[in-house]
Design goal:
mainly alpha
Length: 327
């Protein structure tokens, strides 16, 4: 599989990202050790120029890394299913060896770390005194480790794919597990529990976002519960109304064109909400270092979080209400 043109593109992009980050790590060492915000000597001026260069390099690399998550999902969900026998969606493609699903989870989790750096870099560059330098450069080290691990796991995943081996698709797993797929709110206690948690946490988050400008940590905590419960509720209940099939709860198919790419709306919303709540916490942590611009930014993030949460509640309910009378 390492000779496949899609695989080569992904690996080449990841290798280029790691190469650029290697240079950024070497330059950031100087920023961390020698940066002095109150100094006006020649070294400090050189460091400020390098800081802009390093920040720009890391910025574009991380934007690519976020995009590469969806690129990898597209390859697994569309291209690999044509190559691997028995794989009807990304569930079968990623399950051909032990690296596939772990690689996807790594990419998904790493995006949150990338968002933290991108927001800190934005805040730092928006202030004349660069108040978050060299703090933000400490993040480059774990970012470098995540990108390197991503590359290693990607090579291992593609290298260990055997096209002649028949993969197990999600429908076979569903039947083999003996699970029951009903168009019913009370199909199981497991599903009902996630639905209740989805409704309670979503309502609590909306109330907090609408009435309070404070409590950023509490909003992040409840937001994490809401996003987790929303994903499980989508997988075990709402997704059946998107497909119109009681026995199909695969999340990967919702990224297909025949379902209007609704998966990108859902998971784009989850990441937007998580990013907004994380950024609110960062603003709270570093507000003493920042100027008057950022209270307005916090207000915008509050409203973004509010409307995205409302959409993430309303959209699956819309599918449920639309199809409930037709199934």
């Amino acid at each position: 599989m390492l000779t496949d043109y899609w695989v080569i593109s992904l690996l080449l992009g990841q290798l280029c990202s790691l190469t650029l980050l290697t240079g950024a790590v070497l330059l950031s060492n100087q920023m961390i050790r020698k940066w002095s915000a109150g100094s006006f000597d020649e070294l400090q001026l050189q460091l400020e120029r390098r800081s802009y260069l390093v920040g720009s390099i890391v910025h574009f690399v991380l934007i690519f890394q976020i995009a590469s998550l969806f690129m990898f999902l597209h390859v697994a969900n569309h291209h690999l299913t044509e190559v691997i026998k028995g794989a009807m969606c990304a569930d079968g493609a990623l399950g051909v060896n032990s690296f596939g699903e772990n690689l996807l989870y790594l990419k998904m989790g790493a995006v949150l770390v990338y968002i933290v750096y991108l927001f800190l870099n934005y805040l730092d560059n928006s202030e004349p005194a660069y108040p978050l330098t060299p703090l933000k450069y400490w993040l480059i080290y774990p970012i470098f480790g995540l990108v390197a691990l991503d590359l290693v796991w990607m090579v291992l995943f593609f290298y260990n794919i055997e096209p002649d081996v028949i993969a197990t698709c999600c429908s076979v797993k569903f039947v083999a597990s003996g699970a029951e797929g009903y168009f019913s709110l009370f199909a199981s206690r497991f599903t009902t529990g996630w639905l209740v948690l989805f409704g309670v946490s979503g309502s609590a988050l909306l109330l907090l976002l609408f009435f309070f400008q404070r409590f950023s940590w509490l909003k992040l905590l409840i937001g994490g519960v809401f996003i987790t419960s929303a994903i499980f509720s989508l997988k075990y209940f709402f997704v059946k109304y998107i497909y119109g099939l009681p026995s199909h709860n695969c999340l990967y198919d919702i990224f297909w064109a025949k379902y209007y790419f609704v998966g990108y709306i859902f998971f784009g919303g989850y990441y937007t909400l998580a990013a907004s709540l994380i950024c609110l916490v960062l603003l709270q942590l570093f507000k003493t270092r920042l100027g008057d611009l950022h209270p307005q930014l916090a207000q915008k993030l509050h409203w973004i979080s509010f409307w995205v949460t409302l959409i993430l509640i309303a959209l699956p309910l819309a599918f449920w209400w639309h199809w409930d009378g037709n199934l």
